[in-house]
Task: structure prediction
Amino acid sequence: MTPYRIYLAAAMTALASTAAVAAPPEPGKNQLERGRHLIRIAGCNDCHTPGYAQKNGQVDEKLWLTGDSLGWAGPWGTTYATNLRLMMASMTERQWLHHARHMEPRPPMPWFNVRAMSDAELKAIYAYTRSLGPGGAPAPAYVPPGQKAQGPVVQFP
Ligand code: HEC
Result:
């Protein structure tokens, strides 16, 4: 081979491997299972899935992460666990990673636990949540301190 041909062959190999890396990553079965597992053990369903804690986790997976209308009332006002299915349906993976690393929602959302997750864990959670599809309705709107919330609330001192 002439030097030129060697150069060409090397360039083409480099191009081929770039193309392989740049292909949009399809969530594999393992990634989805990892996401599902993390959602379960990190307690996300406890608040973000209606009735999950009260029913000992026996809630149809179709309802997982659709948010809840149970209010959490305290000095911060009244918060409602967000519908994560709708939220993630409107975000790119990049936006989710950025959001997860910077968000500081009100109590009792343990945002510091989400921030402690690795990129791979956050990506798995994103892939799994999106695989469920954008189900359910948005959670009730946040109620500021001093205003009465509609419906049942868990009252913090
Ligand atoms: C103890 C209850 C509770 C648990 C457990 C919980 N959340 Fe939340 N989460 C909430 C509440 C309540 C809100 C709404 C907070 C607000 O309105 O400021 C929320 C909001 C969020 C938001 C939206 C934040 C924003 O910027 O609007 C995300 C994303 C989220 N939670 C992800 C998770 C994930 C992932 C897990 C599991 C690791 C989890 N949550 C576990 C109660 C909880």
Q: What stands out?
A: Residues 42-44, 46-48, 72, 79-82, 84, 103, 105-106, 108-110, 113-114, 125, 142 surround heme C (CB under 6 Å). The longest strand covers residues 71-74. The chain has a mean pLDDT of 90. Residues 3-22 form the longest helix (20 residues).
